[in-house]
Specification:
Blueprint: E1 11-15, H1 19-31, E2 35-39, H2 42-52, E3 56-60, H3 68-77, E4 86-90, H4 95-104, E5 108-111, H5 116-172, H6 179-193, H7 198-207, H8 220-223, H9 231-238, H10 240-248, H11 254-265, H12 286-301, H13 312-321, H14 333-352
Parallel strand pairs: 1-2, 1-3, 3-4, 4-5
Helix pairs in contact: 2-3, 3-4, 6-7, 6-12, 6-14, 7-11, 10-11, 11-12, 12-13, 12-14, 13-14
């Protein structure tokens, strides 16, 4: 930026109810190389300033209907015209009038009759300040755009990492099919129903598929066993929670941080009967409490080598009323209530992403 001269022809708006005053000021401004536009009253000035975006406004104080004080206050109250510097042109020379104009937002004063040299210096100085302010505003806008672009790139990189991890887990346990895809949608539905912030919706959508990432570390003869597990094998299977949390623990993105919490705690139960740490109530992270009920719903709906698929109505009844193995007290009551209210959406998600 060249601070000594504008890069484009600056436009000055002259506002005065007297035509000869407008003509005089325009003649002086044209001699200095500025373009001009004119308004005959305050109301016209407000409309013209918003439409034409002048670089500077010369505003008479003594005008009928809407005087200069009211006009400058409205100019400064409008975000479109607030940055435009205003020089009040007035025959008034009392301190009270100047203070009133300053309080309304004016940057400078010119006394009538206008001195050419005084006009030149004040207009030049304010235009320099305006140009520098515009430069800073544009520079900040560019920086904001670059930050947003870089943030989007980082988020995409995090999501690629999540996708890669989830794909690796799927290859170890192909019976899950579309399970992880459905889980994302279930969790987002409950997060929205619980009025969680928008960033929570996004994070749990991308973090929840990592809940079983620890199964990568489970031996195939246990993980892929077609029948029931022995007590020793159950001990091994349950380690997928801590394995998953440890895999994700070093991540610094919101997705991997929440993914680690979900992986570790999604088999914990509200009544303390879950694993691996027997946590109860709000000691279990909310994301894991949401994930838990979604995981149970999808597991009940899905066919496994050791059990048939259960239809939606029966699944909802098991979760909300219990069947001996699954009990309502296993779930956060607030999450359970949201699940019951949103269960039709769960059915729609399952039907849309049903296993092949």
């Amino acid at each position: 930026m060249n601070a000594n001269s504008p890069q484009k022809t600056a436009t000055v708006m002259v506002v005065d109810d007297q035509a000869h005053n407008i003509k005089l000021l325009e003649t002086l401004l044209h001699a200095e190389g500025y373009a001009t536009i004119a308004a005959r009253n305050g109301s016209e000035a407000l409309v013209l300033a918003a439409a034409e975006n002048p670089d500077l406004i010369l505003l008479d104080i003594m005008m009928p209907d809407m005087d200069g004080f009211e006009t400058v206050a409205k100019l400064k109250a409008d975000p479109r015209t607030q940055p435009v510097p205003v020089i009040m042109v007035t025959a008034l020379d009392d301190r009270e009038s100047k203070l009133r104009a300053l309080e309304a937002g004016a940057e400078e004063f010119l006394a009538k009759p206008v001195d050419h040299a005084d006009l030149r210096v004040r207009v030049r100085n304010l235009l320099r300040l305006k140009e520098y302010g515009d430069f800073l505003a544009n520079h900040n806008r560019i920086l904001d755009e670059q930050v947003r672009e870089r943030t989007a790139q980082l988020e995409e990189a995090y999501r690629d990492t999540v996708f890669t991890l989830v794909r690796a887990a799927e290859r170890k346990d192909e019976e899950t099919g579309h399970h992880v895809r459905r889980i994302s949608h279930y969790c987002k539905v409950l997060a929205e129903a619980m009025n969680m912030p928008a960033d929570f919706h996004d994070t749990i959508y991308h973090a929840s598929p990592m809940h079983d990432i620890g199964k990568i570390g489970i031996a195939d003869h246990v993980l892929l066993k077609p029948g029931g597990f022995t007590p020793e094998e159950w001990v091994i299977m349950r380690t997928h929670c801590t394995l998953g949390a440890s895999i994700l623990a070093s991540g610094t993105s919101p997705y991997t941080r929440m993914g680690s919490a979900i992986a570790l705690n999604h088999h914990e139960r509200w009544d303390g009967s879950g694993y691996p740490n027997g946590l109860r109530g709000e000691a279990i992270p909310l994301a894991a409490r949401i994930m838990q009920i979604c995981d149970v719903y999808d597991a009940l709906r899905s066919r496994r080598p050791y059990k048939p698929a259960i239809d939606h109505a029966r699944t909802v009844a098991i979760i909300t009323q219990g069947d001996g193995r699954t009990q309502p007290e296993h779930f956060d009551p607030a999450v359970l209530a949201c699940f019951a209210a949103q269960s039709d959406q769960f059915a729609a998600i399952y039907d849309k992403h049903v296993d092949d």
